[in-house]
Amino acid sequence: MRSGRLVLSQTPASRPPARIPGATRGCRLEGNRMRGRLAHLGQLCVLLLMAAKGGQCLRLKFDLQQFVSTLEQYATQKNDVVFVLDESGSIEAENFPAEKVFVEVVARLLIVSPEFSRLAVVTYGSDHVTHIDQMTAGGDMCRFVQQLEEIPYRGGSTKTKEALEQASLLLGNARPGANR
Question: Which of these, 11, 87, 98, 117, could form a disulfide with 110 (CB 3.0-4.6 Å)?
């Protein structure tokens, strides 16, 4: 935390870490795309702060710093990660983009590539859908962000169990030795 801002990464998203030739953290966000992401991220932060009451606010900031710091330690390791997003009716269409922004922010802390982090995204409402699956072949951040943006909100009931079972199946395809 510097000057009241949460620093998500010391490495700009458009540049690779110096110690890994050819690796990138992802597509560069410019102009309106960046402003849109920042607006959603701002909404996400407001929701997180609204959830904190009284003295819990400082604890929440510390927890976020610790979370980001922990994720950055995994950036250069083999990781197979499945994000499970709730798109049931209780979430409502206007809140679903905040879930996708959270996923993108977390993904940008990792190096998304066949060698490092492979990602998958499962959504659930009345049923579950695997929208992104990089577990077997890998992928890159640009493609991941494009696919993430295309995920629609569907609403419906809340079938969490089935989505978690699907996530477990996807992780069954994880690489040997990869963090899950």
Answer: 117
How far, CA to CA in Å, does 155 sit from each of 53, 75, 79, 83?
29, 33, 30, 18
Closest to 27 measured CA to CA, from 129, 157, 139, 146: 146
For 109-146, give the DSSP string: TS-BSSSSEEEEEEEESSSEEEEEE-TTT---HHHHHH
Q: Is 80 helix (H, G, I), strand (E, B) or coil?
A: strand
Note if the pTM is more than 0.85: no
Read off φ and ψ for residue 22, nearest 5 degrees: 80, -5
User: Among positive and negative, which fits the CA dihedral 27, 25, 36, 105?
Assistant: positive
- Enumerate the domain spans of the chain: 31-171
Query: 31-171, what's its fold?
Result: Rossmann fold (3.40.50)
- pLDDT per residue, tens digit, the chain (180 aa), is 333 333 333 333 433 444 443 444 556 555 455 445 445 455 455 555 444 445 555 555 667 778 878 888 888 899 999 999 999 999 999 999 989 988 998 898 899 999 999 999 999 999 999 999 999 888 999 999 999 999 999 999 999 999 999 999 999 989 999 999
Residues 6+ positions from 54 with CB-CB distance below 8 Å: none
Secondary element (H or E) of residue 84: strand 79-86
